Amino acid sequence: MPRREPPLTVKEAAKALNQTEKAIRHLCRIGAFPNAYKIGTGGISAAYRIPAADLDRYEKTQVRAHGGY
User: What is the chain's alpha carbon radius of gyration, rounded to the nearest angstrom?
Assistant: First the structure.
């Protein structure tokens, strides 16, 4: 059975993808991370949690979209 990693915070995801936190929040809002979810009250200031598998999937699509570099 595969080991489940805890979801990442926006800050952790930004560091992993070499992006800004603002860019990661935008990607969450537009559905780039389909399994991301908000914690807390769910309002505009609620924090996102992003599964590591979503980051992996996103990285793979970006490499293909930019010609492999």
Answer: 12
